[in-house]
């Protein structure tokens, strides 16, 4: 008597699908816990705005420009202040330029990062 060769593959698929559902269920619970923690958290800033330009840079820009401004996927920003003014840098942060997508930081955060980067000469 021959066994059906599809059965092991079907079993693996069913186990994989069940695993995905279980992981998703656990993730939903963790997401709700994180949201509740944020509502009851100690120190919250209005709409997540930070007053530290280096912190904003690390959160929004360092992935492409490097945590030390040396570049990576994006160009180096070590001497960006000698090429652009703070206003020009802010416009690039808000509107994007070349491969850089727009909206990496908005409002006060964009202004703070632009002024900080303009000092890099």
Automatic annotation (TrEMBL):
Ranges where the Cytochrome c domain occurs: 48-121
Keywords assigned by UniProt, alphabetized: Electron transport, Heme, Iron, Membrane, Metal-binding, Transmembrane, Transmembrane helix, Transport
Membrane-spanning ranges: 6-28
Cross-referenced PROSITE patterns: CYTC
Keyword Transmembrane: yes
Annotated region (Disordered), positions in chain: 34-57
Highest taxon above the source species: Bacteria
InterPro entries: Cyt_c-like_dom (IPR009056), Cyt_c-like_dom_sf (IPR036909), Cyt_c_BACSU-c550-type (IPR012218), Cytochro_C550_firm (IPR054780), Cytochrome_c550/c551-like (IPR051811)
UniProt cross-references to SUPFAM superfamilies, sorted A to Z: Cytochrome c (SSF46626)
NCBIfam families from the UniProt entry: cytochro_C550
Protein name (database record): Cytochrome c
